[in-house]
Amino acid sequence: MVGLDICGVDVVCDSVLKPIEEQNGGVVEVNAAPGLRMHLSPSFGKGRAVGEAIVSAMFADGDDGRIPIIAVTGTNGKTTTVRLIAHLLTASGLRTGMTNTDGVYVEGRQIDSGDCSGPRSARNVLSHPDVDAAVFETARGGVLREGLAYDRCKVAVVTNIGSGDHLGLNYITTVEDLAVLKRVIVQNVADNGVAVLNAADPIVAGMASNCTGAVTFFAVESNLPIMAAHRVKGHRVVYIENNEIVAVEGKLIQRIPLSDVPITRNGSIGFQVENVMASVAAAWATNISWDAIRKGLKTFMNDSDNAPGRFNVFDYRGATLIADYGHNPDAITALVQAVESMPGKRRSVVISGAGDRRDQDIRQQTEILGNAFDQVILYQDQCQRGRADGEVVALLRSGLANAKRTTDIQEINGEFIAIDAALSTLGEGDLCLILIDQVEEALAHIAKRIAEG
């Protein structure tokens, strides 16, 4: 009635041997934090082991009272992987709490907004009374400032390291430095837990030696030496074969067609396929049923409501719009590969750069885009992150100096003005990739323009 599992109930009556109503008795207090001393060591009479009874009522024999914690880190794909894992856990019936760079969510309801990928937000989820499982995006900044929000996790997922991101900040200057930081979650996997590692990324695969629990490797190619050796030993691997996700452990084999996983667009979006493999491996590690995993994959839609800024696809006057928060060379490369699998007569891209990246990282983004798009619109966003006015746009422009495909370059001040400029040039059958900065506001602006027709 009052929402408590355990409480102290104070009753006034003449005798506990008769119904309260017959003796005009009543309940005078329901105490959320009852004292146990008077029951354990009463002034007279027999002591009662109420503490033991409380614990026995709350937990089954052998239960350690912990909920499964899944931590996700990496350079790219963290937020989508966190959201998908949470969706799979929810599909299995667990009340799931989640933190990511978009906010804090409990059972699908947002309880905080902003970048919530640090330990403070994670602790908010762990202290929530309704949470049966927790999925945490684990960013570098929070780990450097405060460490982790927990002592041990059930599953640690490392999506990739690649060429890294944010290098040059907080004394993290090399990919190797970044790997030391990212592998903290792997080092804190429980003895009965699992590390889910990208076997196609050598630095990530090398983290297996830092895990005291089990390891599940995932990669598109099953014939990678590290994957083959792991499988031969009877350990878990997840890979792609005949356009199906294949999960293997010893003689156990589960297959899920990529045609049943909408987020991958029938397997054509490579980075989403990798995110799905990581998510499946994580759900498997928490003993989620394969029926729940299949159902969750089939019902997870990569729209702007469910996964804002993560390859959201729209139709605008017969043209294809894609909005994404990609902001480093590895992400740009993955996006270009995905876009090249989609039809598009004339291809345009709208991009800015984060000022807290190295010059070479900012420049490299447009070096990649210049070989894949006909038009590039550069814009200066609201936050230059320590850069002088116009400095980021100048770096982006310099990256287009030797572009093989780009023939039209524009520089615009303001994200929404740049989006409008790109939309105004689109014709039927064209494709436009918009690399958004203010995720919610930009998506709302795009939705408004689509509604206007």
Short descriptors:
453 residues, alpha/beta, UDP-N-acetylmuramoyl-L-alanine:D-glutamate ligase, Protein-Tyrosine Phosphatase, Chain A, 3 domains, eleven-stranded mixed sheet, six-stranded mixed sheet, 32% helix
Describe the structure.
- The protein has 453 residues and is an alpha/beta fold.
- It folds into 3 domains: 8-58, no CATH class; 69-299, UDP-N-acetylmuramoyl-L-alanine:D-glutamate ligase; 312-452, Mur ligase, C-terminal domain (Protein-Tyrosine Phosphatase, Chain A, Alpha-Beta Complex).
- It is 32% helix and 23% strand.
- The protein is built from 16 helices and 19 strands.
- It has an 11-stranded mixed sheet with strand order 6-5-4-7-3-8-9-10-11-12-13, with helices on both faces.
- Helix 13 links the parallel strand 16 and strand 17 (375-380).
- Helix 12 runs parallel beside helix 13 (359-369).
- The radius of gyration is 26 Å and the shape is elongated.
- The model has no long low-confidence stretch (mean pLDDT 93).
CATH superfamily of the largest domain: Mur-like, catalytic domain
Structural domain tally? 3
What is the count of DSSP helices, taking H or I runs of 4+ residues? 16
The major pleated sheet works out as: 11 strands, mixed
Short description:
This protein has helices at residues 37-40, 50-58, 78-91, 119-126, 140-146, 175-182, 184-187, 202-205, 225-232, 270-285, 290-299, 329-340, 359-369, 391-398, 415-424, 439-452; strands spanning 8-12, 26-31, 69-73, 96-100, 103-106, 109-113, 133-137, 153-158, 189-198, 214-218, 237-241, 244-249, 252-257, 312-316, 319-324, 347-351, 375-380, 408-413, 431-435.
